[in-house]
Every structure is written in structure tokens, then in C-alpha cells.
Fold these 2 entries.
Entry 1:
Amino acid sequence: MKKYAMPIIMLVVFETIAITLWLTKDNLFYLFNFSYIGLSVSLGIFLFIRKYRHARRIVQLLVGLYMLVYLGLICNENMQIEGFWYYLFTGVFEAATIHYAVAKIFGPLIFGRGWCGYACWTAMVLDFLPYKVPKQPRRKLGWIRYITFSAALVFVAALFLAHAGNMERIMFWAFIIGNLLYYAAGIILAFAFRDNRAFCKYICPITVFLKPMSYFSLIRVKCDKEKCISCGKCKRVCPMNVDVTDNSRKRQNGTECILCMECVKNCPKGAL
Ligand code: SF4
Ligand code: SF4
Ligand code: SF4
């Protein structure tokens, strides 16, 4: 039973969030929402422990499609970064603000960039592309994320300053158009740089939150130096170019780890 501690812990964490928000906000939706996500994540970890090779992809599809199709398209919730700014400006602690607080701002203190490995609906599509492991060296283009981050903030601030009408409708269309642009940019970059996760590395504005918070992450992949034979396989299979043999928090590309566990699965010595 001990090896199943992690899926049980994740289920308890998400159920605690679900019940707390349900009772404090008096809204049954939160109970359904976070229970569904918690069950999906726990199922994925359970399948991973059972060595099912598509475990991560199943969680990614369960959570990513739920957020994109149900919350985004059916419920008209803008869960992109402009939605976060919108709800923050209106002073409403709901939908995108709660989503960001849990998944992208405070959650990463516990589970790092697990969001990027198991739930993001942008990466859900990009991970179907052929370059699962980058075929070219990493480029120094990470500064672009600050431009996209600022652009989203300026866009929402401008709407408020202009007293734009029917903001909910604008946010819905911003969600549709924003997602289409993300997918287009992500697919073009993946083929141009021969790297499925190029969008995540250089463009994604959410990494402005995710990277600093995941630096302190409780859950991390660590290397047992006694077992490691320095074969380099872990780095060769890593989609995010992380040097996982270095246990320091300052390891190369450390805040890029998406906990996909490809390194763990491929280490010939079980050192990770
Ligand atoms: S970096 Fe951005 S696009 Fe990539 S998985 Fe994370 S949130 Fe999604
Ligand atoms: S794959 Fe395992 S043994 Fe090889 S370098 Fe990485 S941690 Fe060490
Ligand atoms: S391969 Fe290992 S180090 Fe690289 S992102 Fe996945 S879990 Fe993190």
C-alpha cells in the first residue's frame, strides 16, 4: 500500500480544496471541479505506479479537455492569462483567479510545474507533435515570455480604461482567439525548432508565474549519486533540457521540469 501513498495524498489535497471552496463559496461547482481534477491526477499517478506508459497523456487529456471544452467553451470561463487579469481587476475571487492561485501560483510550491506536464490544454496538443525530445540546442529566447505576459495585462487594462461594454463576451472571444494563436504559434515553433515544447520554453506567459514558484517546489525529481553512472540518458530524453543529475535547486533549467518522469522511466540504474 505504501507505494500508493502519492495518489492518495493528491486525492486528499484536491478533496480538501474542493470541500473548502464548496463550503466557503457556497457553490457546488467547486466540489465537482476540484474532485474531478483530483480524481484525474490521482488516476494518472496510480497508472504511472502500475507502469502504464500512457499514464501522463491520459491525465493531460482528461484535465486539458475538461478545461478547454467544458469550462472554456461551454461555461464561457476565460482560463487564459487575460481571464486571470480580468477577474483580478473586477475583484472577483472566482474561476480564473482560483484556477491560477491553485494551479499556477501557490500550487507550484508543492507540485512544481505539474500543471505543465499533466493538465495544460496547450501542451496537450503540442505533445502529439513529433519532437518529443528537442532535436536542437536550447535558444536564449526566454525573454519573449515577458512580452506576451505584458501584452495580456495591457490588453485587459486597456479594456477597463476604455470602459468597454460587454466584457464577458470580449473575454470569451479573447479565449477563443488567444487559444488559436497559442496553438498556431506552438505548432509553428515546434516544427521550426524541432522541439514540441518550444512554445513552453520561450513564449508562454504563464511561466512568469510558474518558474519562480516551482523553484521552491516540494515535489522534485532527485538523483541518487551512489547509483548514477553519468550515462547522460536522463538529459537526452528530457523534453525540457533539465540537468536532473544535479540535486541543487539551481540546476540547469531546474524551473523547467514538468515532472513528466521520462528521465525516471529511462534511467538504467534506477537512480532517479
Ligand atoms: S509552459 Fe505554458 S503552454 Fe507550456 S505546458 Fe506550461 S502552461 Fe502550458
Ligand atoms: S540516466 Fe540515471 S544513471 Fe544515467 S546519468 Fe541519468 S541519473 Fe545517472
Ligand atoms: S524528463 Fe525528468 S527532468 Fe525532464 S522534465 Fe521530465 S521529469 Fe523533469
Entry 2:
Amino acid sequence: MIDLHTHTLLSDGELIPTELARRFEVLGYRALAMTDHVDTGMVETVVPVLARVAADLAGEMEMTVLAGAEVTHCRPRHIARVVERARRLGARIVVVHGESPVEPVIEGTNRAAIEAGCDILAHPGRLTESDARLAAERGVLLEISGRAGHSLTNGHVARLAREVGAQVIYGSDSHDVGDLKPPENVERVLAGAGLGTKEIQAALAAAERLVARALEREGQ
Ligand SMILES: [Zn+2]
Ligand SMILES: [Zn+2]
């Protein structure tokens, strides 16, 4: 199983990156991205630390560990710049914190995230049909969230993605030890969003492809 949306104490998570990775390894995951919250300034300090840890763990674990970032609560016009900066600093997976139903995320964030070419639009909330279509066109994955609150609109996101041919992906958005769930939880969350067996397989395959693509990307 693969989880490409998690947090460490470099933002508002509880664990240092190496412990988070160890705990996911013990749970039996195959790949993990550590995607701490970043903005125009935090991207400079957070991403290089995650990139360093991911580089040190490469080849030391059965599990693939990827440095990432979650561009969070930025002004929409800053999003593309932060996505680009995160990639240049070594983020292999770039998530954008979408318009969750439980946070005052600025309207237009979903659109700006897709236009910026992030990998995953996290918890897109009341995603519009035109944004879903654009995500399908650009190959931006729409997240089905394992996190309470953000998950309120999972059904809406799954339905809209199916209608327009966009691809969904699971993300736990884990912050603390209590959030760390066994791999079976991934399929449970996807099924809970209304995905059928084939759609669940497609979501898992999309995660595999994204990891493969991320590994090919040049880190710095
Ligand atoms: Zn957080
Ligand atoms: Zn998150």
C-alpha cells in the first residue's frame, strides 16, 4: 500500500520524519511521501530537511520514502510559485491543500493548484465540475481523504471524478500516531467514498504510477 499525504513535526505532525517512516514501514506500506505544510517561506526550510531524510533512508528500507510538500493556505496566485520551488528543493510529491469543507481555504485554490500542475489536489471539498474536468485533462489526482472532517466530501469528489474521467487517489493526511492505520484502511476509505472494486484498483495503480514517476524526477 502507498500513502502520499502525511505530516511530521516539520509542520503540524507529531513525529520526526525518520520515526514516521519507521512506523509506516512496520505497518507494511510499500511507499510513503512526507508532505509537510509549506507556504512561500516555509518551503525553504521544510523541503530540504525531508529531502535529506529521504535520501538517507533510500536503500535502507524495504519501503520507498519520498520527500514532499503540501502547499497550504497560500494565496492562489502564489501557489504555482511555491509548487515550483518545492520541486526544485527536492519535493518528489507535491500536494496542494484543497478547499476542504472544514477549513477557510481561499476560493480558487483548487483551480490554482490544478493549473500549477501539482501531483495531488488534497481534500478538494466542494470541487466544481469544471475544476474536475481540468484535473482530468492535466492528470492531477483528486484525493479521497482518510482524515475526519476533510473526508466529508469524499463521496462528492468520487462521483464527480467518475463523471468527468478524473483519477482519484487515497491520502491519509496522518498527523499523529493515532492516525497511522494498517494498509487495509486504504481500501476501506476508498470503498467508503463509493468506489467499486475496479475503481479501487485504479486508485491504487495511480499511486503506483505516481511513485514511479516521482522516483524518476531529479531531486536536488
Ligand atoms: Zn496539518
Ligand atoms: Zn495534509
